Automatic annotation (TrEMBL):
<dbReference type="InterPro" id="IPR029063">
    <property type="entry name" value="SAM-dependent_MTases_sf"/>
</dbReference>
<dbReference type="InterPro" id="IPR050078">
    <property type="entry name" value="Ribosomal_L11_MeTrfase_PrmA"/>
</dbReference>
<keyword id="KW-0489">Methyltransferase</keyword>
<dbReference type="GO" id="GO:0032259">
    <property type="term" value="P:methylation"/>
</dbReference>
<dbReference type="Pfam" id="PF06325">
    <property type="entry name" value="PrmA"/>
</dbReference>
<keyword id="KW-0808">Transferase</keyword>
<protein>
    <submittedName>
        <fullName>Putative nicotinamide N-methyase</fullName>
    </submittedName>
</protein>
<dbReference type="GO" id="GO:0016279">
    <property type="term" value="F:protein-lysine N-methyltransferase activity"/>
</dbReference>
Length: 215
C-alpha cells in the first residue's frame, strides 16, 4: 500500500452526517470531484482502489434509515453487513441494539474507514476483509446496501443471498433502482427519498427501496 490509509482519509474527508441519516457521522469526501473523479492512473499512483467508502450511497442511507426506524430488526441479533463501504449500515445496526456486528469489504481502505467511523460514533464493529460471496455467514441477519450495480456481481450475489435466506437468516437489501436488482425474488419493506450528490448519481434524490429476500 503506497499511501497510509488513515493519514489519507483524515486529510481528504470531513466528518459529515449523511443527509438521510443525521444521527451518524462519517469520514466522507465533501466534494465528489476530489476523489471519485480522479483518473485510474492517479488512483494507482497513490495505491487507492475506487473509494466507495468515501461516499454515503443511496442504498446504504436507505437501509441505515430503515434499521434506525425499526430497531427490532437487529436488536440482540448478530449482524453481517456485506460490502460495507463506509460502514454506515453496520454503525446503524450497532446503534439500534445489535448484539454484534461484523462489517465485510474486500477493499483494504474500507477497513480503516470503517474503524475510524465506528470510533466517531462511539460503537464497536468487527471488520473482515475476506470475500464472503458464496460462503457461510455466522449471523442472524445479513444487510447489503447498493450491491446490484453490476451484472456479474449480481449473478453471484442472488443465489448466495437466496441460500442464506433459506437457512433462516433474514437478508435485507437497500437499493436505489440499480439495473440488476432481482425484484422477482424480493419482498417490499419500505421506501425512502434519499438525497445524493449529482456528481455520483443521475439526480439529486434517489428513490430507495428496502427489500427482503424470499426464503
Amino acid at each position: 500500500m503506497k499511501t497510509d490509509p488513515e493519514i489519507f482519509i483524515r486529510a481528504n474527508t470531513s466528518l459529515i452526517a449523511p443527509p438521510h441519516v443525521p444521527e451518524i457521522r462519517l469520514h466522507l469526501a465533501s466534494e465528489a470531484h476530489e476523489l471519485w473523479l480522479k483518473t485510474e492512473e492517479e488512483l494507482m499512483e497513490i495505491g487507492l482502489p475506487p473509494p466507495f467508502w468515501a461516499f454515503a450511497w443511496a442504498g446504504g442511507q436507505g437501509l441505515a434509515r430503515y434499521i434506525l426506524d425499526h430497531p427490532e430488526t437487529v436488536q440482540n441479533k448478530r449482524v453481517f453487513d456485506f460490502a460495507t463501504g463506509s460502514g454506515l449500515v453496520a454503525i446503524a445496526a450497532k446503534m439500534a441494539g445489535a448484539a454484534a456486528v461484523k462489517a465485510a469489504d474486500i477493499d483494504p481502505w474500507a477497513e480503516t474507514a470503517v474503524l475510524l467511523n465506528a470510533v466517531a460514533n462511539g460503537v464497536s464493529i468487527d471488520f473482515d476483509r475476506a470475500d464472503f460471496v458464496g460462503q457461510p455467514v455466522d449471523a442472524d441477519i445479513v444487510l447489503a446496501g447498493d450491491v446490484f450495480y453490476d451484472r456479474v456481481f449480481a449473478d453471484a450475489l442472488v443465489p448466495w443471498f437466496e441460500r442464506l435466506a433459506s437457512e433462516g437468516k433474514e437478508v435485507l437489501v437497500g437499493d436505489p433502482g440499480r439495473a440488476y436488482l432481482p425484484k422477482e425474488r424480493l419482498e417490499f419493506c419500505a421506501i425512502y427519498q434519499v438525497p445524493v450528490t449529482r456528481a455520483l448519481e443521475d439526480s439529486e434524490i434517489k428513490t430507495t427501496t428496502i427489500w427482503r429476500f424470499r426464503a
